[in-house]
Design a protein that fits this description.
Layout lengths: L8 E7 L16 H16 L1 E5 L5 H10 L3 E7 L13 E5 L19 H8 L2 E3 L2 H11 L5 E3 L9 H6 L6 E14 L43 H15 L4 H16 L8 H5 L39 E16 L8 H11 L6 E7 L8 H11 L5 E8 L2 H10 L2 E3 L9 H8 L4 E3 L14 E3 L2 E7 L8 E8 L1 H17 L1 H19 L1 H16 L7 H4 L5
Parallel strand pairs: 1-2, 1-3, 3-4, 4-5, 5-6, 8-9, 8-11, 9-10, 11-12, 12-13
Antiparallel strand pairs: 7-8, 7-10, 14-15
Helix pairs in contact: 1-15, 6-7, 9-13
Length: 548
Amino acid sequence: MAASPWDAMNFILYSDVNDSSISQSLGRPEYSYYFVLKAYRPLFESLGQVHVVSSAAEVDSLYRQLQQAGQDCLFISFAPPHKTPTDLQCPMVCVVAWEFDTIPAEHWDNDPRQDWSRTLARLGRVITLSTHTAEAIRRTLGDDFPVLVLPTPLWERFADIRQQYPGTPVNAGATLQIKGCILDSRAMGLSADGLIAPIIEQPPVEIVEPEPEPQPEPEPPPAPPLTLRRRLFISKHYLREAGRSTLFLLKHNLLMWYREAVRDLVPDAVRPWLARFRTPQPLPVEPVVNETPEPDEPAPVQEEHPQAAFPDTSQTVEILVDGVVYVSVFNPDDGRKNWHHLITAFCWALRDVEDATLVLKMTQNDLSTYYVELMTLLSQLSPFACRVVVMHGYLQDEQFARLYGAASYYVNASRCEGLCLPLMEFMSCARPVIAPNHTAMRDYIDERVAFVVKSSQEPTIWPEDARILYRTLRHRPDWGSLKMAYENSYAMAKNQPDAWQTMADEASERMHEYCSFAPVQQRLALFFKQESVRDVVPVVAETGAASC
């Protein structure tokens, strides 16, 4: 048997995240490159020997060993260009996932590596995951720059799941399990009142000040003399008041007339006899309600809102979901994912529907980074009849298979995507989706496989740009279009199961055409073969004609 031209070829693969660190690396900016490496590895194994290294420092020593043995070697770096080593002896190719319409073509902070155009020009070729990324690179480096558009080959990997979990528009019930924690909107007692922080009364601070020295009280001004004219004036006043008062006030007015007008005219011997008539009558007293509870009645306790306490994430927990189940997988710290709209549109569109569930699998290792924000958002939306389930933790393959099987739809509301592996994975499991068709998703999303969410462009920054300058564009999904997609997809699942099945079959077939193993392998082999003979015919012209 003739030897394959690739028998003596060695591929050294490297990603900053590896098998031993992935569970602790969820949420890091480059953690998704680990999954791309895993998906690409069978491709490279079909073309030669594969060596996975845990550090870029291992590359050159391995390269020299293989060179001495007479074998060719190529280093494949799964990292953005500014984190790709460029001082190695081993020939290399960079695999780039990028979601904006331009690449960084200038540097900042006195770091030339931030200029991607310089790094890529020095490497001389690049592998991208989407047509969108290839176009962004060509805008800067020219149409003849060697670029390979190579979607990750996923479709075959999900054959068992397609067989084990055939799709259904309305799930009769599926158990999801995870090592971490599960937040269920129906079990949390959501209320907008819970957003009010408790008022903690601080004990008053007693400030002791020196007592001022007593000042002599001013003497009251002397009373005007009781002339005959003044006595008549006072008598006239109280006579007028007595004529329009009750019996009680009549006695009061007579007493006041006596004190002010004639008391000094009465002899001292007569005054004790009149005193008994001047005893003041008690004013009517209203009954006082005893506000102090009886001893046998417990005093009411005012409940305070408890302080935020994060759930335990060290246990293995599970939950049962059913109905029309929407699933989304994302990092809540990634501003591109637009997860607030994803939740608000769902709760608003299906707020009166009890059998609609949104399952959010968070790819973030630190619960504290989003817990309060998530609880606040759900509390603001409450009450709603639909259900939101948040899964926090790391899912092993078996548990992820259950999540694929539970889904009626996958949902994406991103502002931009470099590839979106979860979206492609659920489509490979024959699940229709809700998603925009911009950036990388433009390669495989249309009305046959998805409820397409409308979007428009808006200015933004390159993620690594510390200057925070607008240099590129992303997309703004339309919230009303997303809400309508929820409504229409729910109606299809409930009322048109045949239409749902047709869309599910189309999604699986689209992934078969787009990312099955054989055509992707052929593209990769052709790219390296052309490069080996210094043929710089733009391979992207061929691959771009496909669905990439």
